[in-house]
UniProtKB/TrEMBL annotation:
Source species: Paenibacillus algicola
Keyword Iron-sulfur appears in the UniProt entry: no
Superkingdom of source: Bacteria
Designated name of the protein: Zinc-binding CMP/dCMP deaminase protein
Record-annotated active site: 91 (proton donor)
Length: 172
């Protein structure tokens, strides 16, 4: 591969996050996250049930329904949404499997914008940057406000194409 076609670091690490996400067994969402310090990969994680416990492919997703306030065409509306709570989110698994010292000043690349709980935990984990690709509008506003308050760089990788083979059909 010629030098000018070489992947930039954002693409390189986000591609790895998408590769990692293919390990997920949840039919509803495949999320991957990687920890990067400098240009060194220090950890990888995906969303899944605790080790040794049946996962979504074996036991099915564990679905809960929530009402969510959605603004559509300037009108606020309560919409019922379903989500799977069987899994530990990728970002939380990443924190469980990495050391604090490796996280200080590090970057997390994650396929999806973190939910509120993950964002809160990331904010207290020592990391100083979060880069994501797919937006998660539900928590986006409060998460970006909190990241700004913490001084954590919070970047959407917009012009990015995930490797085709890492994308799954999501059941909604
Ligand atoms: Zn699931
Ligand atoms: Zn989360």
């Amino acid at each position: 591969m010629s030098q000018d076609r070489r992947k930039d670091w954002d693409t390189y690490f986000m591609d790895i996050a998408f590769m990692v996400s293919t390990r997920s067994q949840c039919h509803r969402r495949h999320v991957g996250a990687v920890l990067v310090q400098g240009k060194k990969l220090l950890g990888t994680a995906y969303n899944g049930a605790p080790m040794g416990v049946p996962d979504c492919s074996e036991a099915g997703c564990m679905i809960v329904e929530d009402y969510e306030l959605v603004t559509a065409a300037g009108k606020e509306e309560m919409v019922k949404k379903q989500r799977c709570i069987r899994t530990i989110h990728a970002e939380q698994n990443l924190l469980l499997f990495t050391d604090r010292i490796d996280r200080e000043g590090s970057t997390v690349y994650v396929t999806d914008e973190p939910c509120w709980t993950c964002a809160n935990m990331l904010a207290n984990s020592g990391i100083t940057e979060v880069v994501f690709h797919r937006a998660y509008p539900k928590d986006s506003l409060k998460v970006s406000v909190m990241m700004a308050q913490k001084g954590i760089q919070f970047r959407l990788l917009e012009d990015y194409q995930p490797p085709q083979e890492t994308l799954m059909t999501i059941q909604n």
